[in-house]
Write a structure and sequence with these properties.
Layout (H helix, E strand, L loop, with lengths): L2 H50 L11 E7 L3 H15 L2 E7 L1 H9 L6 E3 L4 H8 L8 E7 L1 E5 L9 E4 L2 H12 L5 E5 L5 H20 L4 H6 L1 H4 L2 E5 L2 H9 L5 E5 H9 L5 E4 L8 E7 L11 H4 L2 H6 L1 H8 L3 H10 L1 H4 L14 H5 L1
Parallel strand pairs: 1-2, 1-3, 6-10, 7-8, 7-9
Antiparallel strand pairs: 3-11, 4-11, 5-9, 5-10
Length: about 350
């Protein structure tokens, strides 16, 4: 290749490079604008998604809480805990057992942050033993006792409204007077619903004795205690399982369990036991700390869920509250308390009208 040809090629090469360079100088602002446009669109899209699906708010540095719960309240607690986690980002670990078992574990140093008992006496005992601050004991629900049974001839009485003592006695005696009848109750040494069941049996016996003839031979027969065999479960959930598996003819269990079974479409006969037959089942909790809990004011009663998620000032307020304190505030909030009847309970402070329903 001669020198002239090399010179021409060099000029053409440099011209092409210059053309490319000139094209880049002309188009780079357009490319930059295009990039900025895509970035802006992405930012706007991400922001809109956050508005529709707000990210959960981390309310505390230690964003978890370990809750021990009596078996009767396990299902409601799981629903409530799921809502709480979605709202605040605080994870809830749940341990289920009888009140007596959980109480003993806490006495021996179990690291539960919150203990939801089926009675008040065990949380109170923890306070009396100076294991828990007295301000950390609060009521969270009122339990109700139900009688489930197998005989279809009494199915016309089945109702989730409380029936009269006379109606209940008729059903109970009809079910439990058959040959080899078995009645399941929770162990009263471990489960408060077992205590309530024993109170029902005592009330039934007293009622029968009053209705019987004054003849001494009849009263000495004491038919109430002889006409069925008692089978005791370690907690109210196991007691209910005795009935659902066909091991017993009837059972005295938490109303919440029968209500949940009905929601699932299971067919069974159930009536509420008259509240006059047993002492109120006041379910209480403790926050397992020797320092006073921060429960007042209840932040969930003061602000809406939308405000909690989007308002930065409120977010800072939640961050200053311990996860366990925040969880108990949510459980005691008006929103949750008003929904307790959905799970078969009454609010911690129920009106006479609510109790009679």
């Amino acid at each position: 290749m001669d020198a002239e040809t090399l010179r021409v090629n060099d000029v053409l090469h440099r011209s092409g490079a210059l053309a490319v360079h000139d094209f880049y100088l002309i188009s780079s602002p357009l490319i930059a604008l295009f990039k900025r446009s895509l970035l802006m669109r992405f930012v706007l899209f991400f922001f809109s998604i956050c508005l529709i699906f707000p990210l959960p708010l981390r309310a505390a540095e230690n964003a978890s809480v370990n809750v021990a719960v009596a078996a009767n309240f396990a299902k409601p607690l799981r629903d409530i805990a799921s809502e709480f986690t979605q709202l605040t980002g605080v994870d809830v670990a749940i341990t289920v057992s009888s009140s007596g078992t959980l109480f003993a574990q806490i006495q021996h140093g179990a690291g539960f942050d919150v203990f939801l008992s089926a009675d008040r006496s065990r949380p109170q005992a923890l306070v009396d033993a100076h294991l828990v601050h007295s301000d950390n004991l609060v009521n969270y629900a009122l339990g109700r006792l139900a009688f489930v049974y197998t005989n279809e001839k009494n199915a016309n009485y089945a109702s989730h409204s409380e029936i009269s003592p006379a109606q209940f006695s008729k059903i109970f005696e009809s079910e439990m007077s058959v040959a080899n009848a078995k009645l399941a109750i929770a162990n009263p040494k471990l489960a408060p619903y077992g205590v309530a069941a024993e109170q029902v049996l005592a009330s039934m016996q007293t009622r029968q004795l009053h209705q019987q003839s004054q003849d001494q031979t009849q009263t000495e027969q004491n038919p109430t205690s002889a006409m069925f065999t008692k089978v005791k479960g370690k907690n109210v959930l196991q007691t209910y399982q005795f009935f659902t598996t066909g091991s017993v003819s009837g059972a005295l269990v938490a109303h919440s369990l029968t209500l949940e079974s009905e929601k699932k479409g299971d067919s069974e006969n159930s009536v509420l036991v008259p509240s006059t037959y047993y002492s109120p089942i006041v379910q209480s909790l403790i926050i397992n700390s020797k320092s006073a809990a921060q429960l007042v004011p209840n932040v969930f009663n003061e602000i809406s869920e939308t405000e909690i998620r989007l308002n930065g000032e409120i977010a800072e307020r939640l961050k200053g509250i311990s996860s366990s304190h925040l969880f108990v505030q949510y459980l005691l909030s008006q929103r949750v308390q008003n929904r307790l009847p959905e799970w078969g309970y009454l609010p911690a402070v129920a009106t006479p009208q609510q109790i009679s329903k």
